[in-house]
Amino acid sequence: MQSKKFRPSLFVTLSAGVILVFSTVSPARVWGQERWPLYLPIVANQSNLAPADPNEQVTPEVPGEQIPPDATATPNAPETRSPGLPDPPTSTPEVPATSEAPATSVPDATATPDAPATQAPELPGSPTSTAEPEVPATPEVPATSEVPATSLPDATATPDAPATQAPELPESPTSTAEPGATPTRTSTTTLPNTPTATLESTPGSTPTATAPAEATPVVTPTATRQSGQAPYSPPGGLWLTAGELNNLPTSGSAWDNLKSAADEKASTPDLSDQDSNANVQILAKALVYARTGQTSYRNEVVDALKIITDDQTEAGGRTLALGRELAAYVISADLIDLQHVDPGLDGRFRNKLRELLTKTLDGKTLIETHEQRPNNWGTHAGASRAAVAVYLGDKAELERTAQVFHGWLGDISAYSGFSYNSDLSWQADSSHPVGINPAGATKDGHSIDGALPEEMRRGGSFRWPPASTNYAWEGLQGAFVQAEILARAGYPVYEWEDRALLRAVEFLYGINWPAESDDEWMPWMVNKIYGANFPTATKAHAGKNMGWTDWTHGN
């Protein structure tokens, strides 16, 4: 995978990167022309973080080294959001989430919560994985969290709700912050099965924190959209619709980049390898097939999906790896219309996806990771969770995913069940920690508006200029894929919390930490979504869970 390039006077960890390209639109049917209705807010009371362990110390990451994981913490899980919809199931107390650890690090503390769901069978287990070793920092405070149960989707139904309506969701249980509480969540509604178009991204290099370096402030590109201009409102689909794909070019540098990646022999799919770029390679093939209808590309995608479905490749991995890898395969299955191309495989694939949501990997499930880890582990897990929910047509699971994401963006009334590290020095309000600092936040006279506290502390406790770490961009990779899937399902995520995702990108450019290497695909999305003018790379590298946005979002 591609290594990240860090700021001046910092050590950098370089990794091989794979440039992958994907193309879309095929004669094959691409689903998702209709999108789900807008959300209705759902509020779940959650607990805040537990007391930090005074014996833990935060140390900066050392380039090229795997740093031991943070002290174990237990997951927690409430969430909810969306006005106009019945209150979704509320979750209970947070469970201590374990800190991130390198591939060789000790597994996260076991957590296998499974909440009963009304009229809905329990989902299978979920994986864990880590894109980057976490600096041994003070352990995250344990907090119990509940694991939502999702209802089985209607295998043959397709969404037909108008874009302006919000999907009806089951009442959400109220979550408690008290440790030891048993999280429960009931879901009574299922969402019709919705095929969607998908994109893959190649895994990138593992960010590492190095010695403090002076950051040179630069002029920050900002969104140019006029106040009266309508917010970004994608037409639906999981990642792209057939109409969008048909309007994309089959010439030019972006197409050449995608086609070149699609023509290469893909690596063997492996959900346990957090650095595998097979996911974005397969995504490139799915995009080219969707755009051109050349069945040779589709056949390679089908072969890869058979491996993911039947070979237990997730075994021995962690939820960080699963979170990074899975979303692109789900999107690829949607792009080639697997449901009609190979109904038998599609049925097995859907069963596998349900299993992966709740399968324990290295002590944690994909759902638990999303609801407990307010960092790159959680955002990547959320991206794959959202993709699975849409592909299966599971409305309750999707609503829960949106609720947790809203809480991560800063709405603690929607969800506050994350287990944060004890180093809260980058938080605007340490008594109410969030995934992205609120608008206007400052500290010691410096703006920390848009900073990702749980990622910035990986470089060390608050200081100015900040100590170098690429975890912030790594966390945003999962966040942007999660956001796009939710936006296409009808949730106005890009406007939530004063455009939190835009502010996060502006913060990084403001401290002269531009997107580089396997993060290059994100500015293309940000510019299209917000009408911004962040610098973009020609033939942008694919990332850990997505890529090819210079073609899909650049036109």
Describe the structure.
This protein is mainly alpha-helical. 31% of the residues lie in helices and 1% in strands. It is built from 15 helices and 2 strands. Strands 1-2 form a two-stranded antiparallel sheet. Helix 2 (253-263) crosses helix 3 (278-292), helix 4 packs across helix 7 and helix 8 (366-372) crosses helix 9 (376-392).
Report the β-strand fraction as a percent range.
Answer: under 5%
The helix/strand order is HHHHHHHHHHEEHHHHH
Residue windows where pLDDT falls under 50 for at least 5 positions: 1-219
CA distance, first residue to last residue = 26 Å
Q: Radius of gyration from the CA trace?
A: 21 Å
Give the number of DSSP strands: 2
Structural class: mainly alpha
Per DSSP, the total helix count is 15
Largest sheet: 2 strands, antiparallel
Mean pLDDT: 73
Strand order of the largest sheet: 1-2
Share of helix, binned: 25-40%
Overall shape: it is globular
List keywords for this structure.
555 residues, mainly alpha, two-stranded antiparallel sheet, 15 helices, 31% helix, globular, disordered N terminus
Please outline what is shown here.
The chain is mainly alpha-helical and 555 residues long. It has helices at 242-246, 253-263, 278-292, 295-310, 319-335, 338-341, 343-356, 366-372, 376-392, 395-409, 453-456, 471-488, 496-510, 521-530, 549-552; strands spanning 442-443, 446-447.
